[in-house]
Design a protein that fits this description.
The complex is a heterodimer of chains A (about 240) and B (about 260). Chain A is α/β, with parallel strands linked by helices and about 240 residues long. Chain A has seven helices and seven strands. Chain A has a single domain, classed as Rossmann fold. By secondary structure, chain B is of the alpha/beta class. Chain B has nine helices and seven strands. Chain B folds into two domains: about 210 residues, Rossmann fold; about 35 residues, no CATH class. Chain B has a seven-stranded parallel sheet with strand order 3-2-1-4-5-6-7, sandwiched between helices. Classes of the chains: A alpha/beta (about 240), B alpha/beta (about 260). Chains A and B meet through helix 5, helix 7 and strand 7 of A and helix 6, helix 9 and strand 7 of B. Chain A: Belongs to the short-chain dehydrogenases/reductases (SDR) family. Chain A: It holds the Pfam family adh_short_C2. Chain A: This is NAD(P)-dependent dehydrogenase, short-chain alcohol dehydrogenase family.
């Protein structure tokens, strides 16, 4: 994809696949210069940085380089994440920490790197990714739900803190989305479950990307809001 | 593209919604109370949007279910197809301290605001189901989420609209009909004039007063609410079902 000179820069974490990949496609189509941050190469983005979002130093270095070479980051979308269904008794401390460091830490690290510039410029927007499982909770999802729940808390507080500076912070809480995050044998793919959803089907990554695009480009009065494209899983 | 019925279309918020949906290629049916100045506003907008064929003007009182049914039948007949998008903006605003609110007026608020949405949803549903899907977008209010002193009737009605969007979302999702609500904060419309007159100050002063309690430091432009309507009306968005979009500059921040 061709880089557009002078286009606004959007950074998307988790951009190598699923929701993050759909987001870079949607934003690129809308004329943004997209930069994908992921453990694996983000092949759909204009630029890709391979890194671990849970590492503050790597994220800070990447954002510094992006702003130096491409210009100020106008939009930061934090979609990087991983998922596992594990009963409480079987969650190891390492897995617990990893879940928090990736979801909450990934958002925190990006925010700490992009917020100073956004505040100085008086505009910019950040989107965190939470989940219907944070809003509704579910069996076997203790560490994932807890980690995604923290995202809502951070977004609410940071939204209040940064709104007077003109920087908008919001979140998206997708329901079960048809991405590699849902294993082929995931219970969220079972026909008996999908039939129960009010929309009768899984969420598509493109719908989540449209939600991102709405919040970034047109949700100019949305602050601390959580959008829930979830097929009705949690209402 | 679809036929989009917009109630309360003569209000600045309704006008913004109509303009936005028309710009996306929908045929808009503009409804408001059959009062002369409102009809003039609707006809003026319809003419601007391209005259007959691009916009219909269909006055009705949403508080009267029979009138609503007649209006919907008229839209379907004149458009030659069922309504695909319903946007309910119409509302009657009256506030008073709880014990001083005249019961008849109290019920008029509920029966116009909540009853109007019920009547519209019921009237458009058969056609929407027949065409294989659609969108219902109910404009509620922040008051339905946070409550407001002196606005028990409005708050009850708006909270009812939100709850109805959730239940109807569940009920109609499998038919391909996505039902959602939008709960705006204070929007910069002529309603502020009434507040200003009541308080004996200018609209600008009222704007500033409202803006002071909004984290973003301002109130909403009607176009920002219209953008949320367009997002929910997007034919590609099926997975937003039974949700509430809080477009309020950060006053509630995902409270409910």
């Amino acid at each position: 994809m061709d880089d557009i000179a002078g286009a606004r820069v959007a950074v998307v974490t988790g951009a190598a696949s699923g929701i993050g990949a759909a987001t870079v496609t949607e934003l690129s189509q809308r004329g943004w210069t997209t930069v994908g941050l992921d453990l694996r190469p983000s092949t759909g983005a204009h630029h890709a940085v391979t890194l671990d979002v849970s590492d503050p130093a790597q994220v800070r270095a990447a954002i510094c380089r992006i702003e130096r070479e491409l210009g100020p980051v106008e939009a930061a979308v934090c979609a990087a994440g991983h998922y596992a269904i594990v009963p409480l008794a079987d969650i190891g401390w390492t897995e617990w920490l990893r879940m928090l460091r990736v979801h909450l830490g990934g958002l925190l690290n990006v925010c700490r790197a992009v917020v100073p510039g956004m505040v100085a410029r008086g505009h910019g927007t950040i989107i965190g990714f939470t989940s219907d499982l944070a809003v509704g909770g579910s069996d076997g999802d203790v560490h994932y739900s807890a980690a995604k729940g923290t995202v809502i808390g951070l977004v609410r507080a940071l939204a209040a803190e940064l709104a007077p500076s003109g920087v908008r912070v919001n979140a998206i809480a997708p329901g079960p989305t048809d991405t590699p995050l849902l294993a082929p044998d995931s219970p969220w793919r079972r026909p008996s479950y999908v039939r129960m959803l009010p929309a009768g089907r899984l969420v598509s990554p493109e719908e989540v990307a449209l939600s991102v695009a709405y919040l970034v480009e047109e949700g100019t009065f949305c602050v601390g809001e959580v959008l829930s494209p979830n097929s009705g899983s949690v209402i | 593209m679809a036929v989009a019925l917009i109630t309360g279309a003569a209000d600045e918020l309704g006008l913004a919604v109509a303009r936005r949906l028309a710009s996306e290629g929908h045929l808009v049916a503009l409804s408001d109370l059959p009062r002369r100045e409102r009809l003039e506003t609707l006809h003026k907008l319809a003419a601007k949007l391209g005259g007959p064929g691009a916009a219909l003007v269909v006055p009705a009182d949403v508080a009267d279910p029979e009138d609503v049914a007649r209006m919907v039948a008229e839209v379907e007949e004149r458009a030659g197809e069922p309504i695909g998008i319903l946007v309910t903006v119409a509302g009657y605003l009256a506030t008073a301290p709880f014990l001083r609110h005249d019961p008849d007026d109290w019920w008029r608020v509920v029966d116009t605001n909540l009853g109007g949405v019920f009547a519209c949803a019921q009237a458009v549903l058969p056609g929407m189901a027949e065409r294989g899907g659609g969108r219902m977008i109910f404009i509620a209010s922040e008051w339905g989420v946070t409550g407001r002193a002196g606005a028990t009737a409005c708050s009850a009605a708006e909270a009812g609209i939100i709850a109805m969007a959730k239940s109807l979302g569940r009920e109609l999702g499998q038919l391909g009909i996505a039902v959602n609500a939008i709960a705006p904060g204070v929007v910069d419309t002529s309603r502020l004039e009434a507040d200003a007159r009541e308080a004996g100050v200018t609209r600008e002063v009222i704007r500033t007063r409202h803006a002071a309690r909004v984290p973003l430091g301002r109130i909403a432009a009607p176009e920002e609410i219209a953008a949320a309507v367009a997002f929910l009306a997007d034919p590609r968005m099926i997975s937003m079902v039974g949700q509430v979009l809080h477009i309020n500059g950060g006053t509630t921040r995902a409270r409910g």
